[in-house]
Design goal:
Layout (H helix, E strand, L loop, with lengths): L10 H8 L6 E4 L2 E4 L5 H18 L5 E4 L4 E3 L2 E3 L3 E4 L13 E8 L4 H5 L1 H7 L6 E6 L4 E8 L2 E8 L3 E4 L4 E4 H4 L21
Parallel strand pairs: 7-8
Antiparallel strand pairs: 1-2, 3-6, 4-5, 6-7, 8-9, 9-10, 11-12
């Protein structure tokens, strides 16, 4: 007998079913996919971005969420690594209303989906103004920005900053990659770091 998650279901059926599950699932085109864990580098980058956004957006009416908050995008249900909304919401809501910024941290196992179907789902969602794809294995971000009905792509690399015009802030790549193997401020192997006092 097939598992309930293996059957094609409508968006409404999925949302009702998923609210009863202990795990998180994404939904696209009637297909349900369980979300798995991530590498420590992935988690660190996600936390760095979320922290920088939270600090910068404090008191603005906008709020970032991490990958436990779901987003409805072009009829799909997604759990982006980071998303930002400036729309008020209720404390029991479980869907981020009107996301304006979506950020995914990619790994080799998620790159195809993040650059493919997810990207087009986000592009088709009218409230989303920017979509950033952050690589975890290189200091590189692909930043897509809505320009009317089109999207522009900017590649951010090296020591540059990620310019998030949708919310009026910038985050340096040094801040994004802090405490990862790509941290430019981290002592190189063999260098000694003085202990903090």
């Amino acid at each position: 007998m097939p598992n309930t998650a293996e059957k094609l279901m409508s968006l409404e059926e999925f949302l009702a079913w998923e609210r009863e599950q202990p795990e998180r699932y994404e939904y696209a085109g009637g297909v349900v996919t369980m979300i798995t864990g991530a590498s420590l580098a992935h988690v660190t980058i996600t936390m760095n971005v979320a922290f920088a956004l939270r600090q910068s957006l404090r008191g603005s009416g906008c709020r970032p969420f991490t990958n436990d908050a779901k987003v409805l995008a072009a009829g799909s249900v997604r759990y982006p690594d980071v998303t930002v909304t400036c729309t008020p919401f209720g404390g029991t809501d479980d869907v981020v209303p009107d996301p304006i910024l979506v950020i995914e941290v990619i790994s080799p196992s998620t790159e195809r989906e993040d650059r493919g179907r997810k990207k087009f789902d986000y592009f088709a969602t009218s409230s989303i103004r920017q979509y950033a794809i952050i690589e975890q294995d290189a200091r590189r971000v692909d930043l897509y920005t809505r320009a009317g009905t089109d999207w522009t792509n900017e590649v951010v690399e090296g020591g540059a900053a990620l310019k998030l015009s949708s919310i009026g802030i910038e985050i340096s790549l040094d801040a994004i990659y802090e405490d990862t193997g790509l941290d430019a401020t981290r002592p190189r192997e063999g260098e000694r770091q003085a202990p903090a006092l």
